[in-house]
Design goal:
alpha/beta; 43% helix; globular
Length: 302
């Protein structure tokens, strides 16, 4: 193909890619003063938040008790400025009338929640440590265990979502999903002393409600059974469609729990189970024991 034909093909392709009919819902038109949220800035927000919540484990490792307040002050100031910028970028997706003052207010309200977030994250660290005989220290849990990174991102994102910040909370939890393989929707409600052992492949849906002292293992799905449709055949948004796990529930690896059902307190759900019905308190759900091939052969011989 000669160069003129190649140029013509390229120009035709550019025109097709620029057609409005092909861009429905796929094009965000830039407006002055309303940029998209930055994944790089949000990554720094997460790193700063982790450094504030777990000083010495994240951020500067030379921090000590004499310099702690100074370093937290520096990190909070940087976090505040980044949050204003990113919250404002997120707000442009929903409300054009929310100005810079709103972003400043939301940033301050989020930062003021960090002491409370640290308190509940401390219970998550404790649960992970007590739930794993292989763990030798809290420091190992904080430094190494993917659940702490995932649950930290989730609790940050959930707080921002509760304050009415759009889009950014979902980006933050998806960042943890990419980092750890743990997918927690920021709208889910999770109590204290929560942990996930190993973690890879866990999915927690948007309308899940999880109580206190709950433990999940890898591969667990807390999902929706179906999606009700409206008269036009479109999924109905905003309905409760994911499970409720009450206090002291344990769900073992690769179990799938679907629909708006209640896994009652003190229930143990065994591995590789498919659960679509509510349980009674203290119930143990396990697979039926298989008859061994030896017994089967004996029965055939008889």
């Amino acid at each position: 193909m000669d160069s003129s034909k190649l140029n013509s093909l390229l120009n035709e392709t550019i025109v097709k890619l620029s057609e409005a009919s092909s861009l429905k819902g796929l094009f965000h038109e830039h407006q002055d003063g309303a940029p998209l949220p930055s994944s790089r800035a949000l990554s720094e927000i997460i790193e700063l938040s982790r450094a504030i919540l777990f000083p010495g484990f994240y951020g500067k490792n030379t921090i000590n008790s004499h310099t702690l307040q100074y370093h937290i002050g520096v990190d909070v100031e940087r976090l505040y400025n980044l949050l204003i910028e990113q919250i404002r970028a997120g707000l442009c997706f929903e409300r054009q009338d929310r100005e810079l003052s709103s972003a400043k207010d939301l940033a301050i309200m989020f930062i003021s929640s960090l002491p409370r977030l640290r308190e509940i994250l401390a219970t998550d660290v404790e649960a992970a440590y007590n739930g794993d005989p292989a763990a030798e220290s809290y420091g190992e849990i904080i430094s190494c265990y993917p659940v702490i990174k995932a649950i930290t991102n989730y609790r940050i994102a959930h707080e921002l979502l509760s304050l009415g910040v759009p889009l950014i909370p979902r980006i933050i939890t998806e960042m943890a999903h990419s980092e750890t393989g743990i997918d927690i929707h920021p709208a889910a409600q999770i109590g204290h002393h929560f942990t996930i052992d190993h973690g890879t492949g866990v999915v927690i849906g948007a309308t899940c409600i999880i109580g206190n002292n709950v433990k999940l293992y890898q591969g667990v799905t807390l999902g929706a059974k179906s999606f009700p449709l409206d008269k036009d055949g479109n999924p109905i948004k905003g309905i409760a469609r994911h499970p409720i796990l009450e206090d002291n529930v344990i769900v073992y690896s690769n179990a799938t729990i679907l629909g708006r059902i209640t896994i009652a307190r003190d229930t143990v759900v065994g591995g590789n189970l498919w659960v679509t019905e509510s349980t009674k308190p203290g119930e143990n759900l396990v697979q039926a024991k298989r008859i061994s091939s030896e017994v089967q052969h004996q029965e055939k011989d008889e």
